[in-house]
TrEMBL record:
The keyword Nucleotide-binding does not apply. Residues 1-23 form the signal peptide. The keyword Signal applies. Belongs to the glycosyl hydrolase 13 family. Pfam families: PUD. Residues 45-138 form the Pullulanase carbohydrate-binding module domain. Keywords: Glycosidase, Hydrolase, Signal. This is Pullulanase carbohydrate-binding module 41 domain-containing protein.
Length: 146
């Protein structure tokens, strides 16, 4: 009986994932147990961008400010790292160190902006280490259930 309870507890933990506390005291979900997600290193953040048509050619990130290693120019977008069949294109952004806090980004293709055409701020205290976006929406989410 104890063995069954132990297995059930382990399974529940695996399904829910891990939760950590940010420096500001708020809980941030760390998506360590979701299949199909890239596992970032300590000085990386991941931006997922899901398009309805599944076409990601020439869509990239304009990155500036905060803790990024290298800002990009508008004409030289940061390219996608890979494509997840489930979550869309993903961009692994290198950051200055493991104690990073924030950076700004725009998803664009040439002069066409997506995500509502807005400048976005990736705040670790709000999103953890990855953020999920969807074509045409300005919403950013800490988990893939958008």
């Amino acid at each position: 009986m104890k063995f069954r309870l132990l297995i059930a507890a382990i399974a529940a933990f695996a399904i829910v994932g891990c939760t950590t506390t940010s420096d500001e005291g708020g809980a941030v979900e760390v998506n360590t147990n979701i299949p199909g997600l890239y596992t970032p290193g300590p000085s990386e953040a991941v931006i997922y961008y899901k398009r309805i048509d599944g076409q990601y050619d020439d869509w990239g990130l304009h990155l500036w400010s905060g803790d990024i290693v290298r800002e990009t120019s508008w004409g030289s977008a940061f390219p996608l790292t890979g494509i997840s069949e489930t979550y869309g294109a993903y961009y692994v952004v290198p950051l200055k160190d493991a104690n990073w806090d924030t950076f700004n980004f725009i998803v664009h293709k040439g002069n066409t902006k997506d995500l509502g055409g807005l400048d976005h701020t990736f705040e670790r205290s709000a999103f953890g280490v990855d953020v999920f976006t969807t074509e045409g929406s300005s919403d950013l989410a800490a988990d893939p259930a958008m």
